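Lab notebook page, bench 4
Experiment: in silico fold of construct C2
Operator: M.H.
Input chain length: 90 residues
Purpose: comparison with the prior construct
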Amino acid sequence: MVPKLLTPEQKESRTNICADIVNNIDTDPSLLDTVMTRFESVEAVKAKATEVLNQLTEADFQHCFQQWKSRMERCRDRQGEQSKAIKLLL
């Protein structure tokens, strides 16, 4: 992974995109309906998420925790410089 800092133009673009998304969420109450393509309703999503989460084992959670810890250590070791992989998680 190569550390990469955003240029001012990239920062502005990302900020504008995020602002547009937040504005759409705030002004379009039916936005969630257009995003929901695989499930019939929010309740269906919640039911499926609960089903999947209940199937996870302790080992699954331990694995996720170790991956998270590893990413945080890389961030610390780079003194806060973001990498492409870490940006994807934000």
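Observations: Helices lie at 8-27, 31-35, 42-55, 58-77, 84-89. The chain has five helices and no strands.
Next step: discuss at group meeting.
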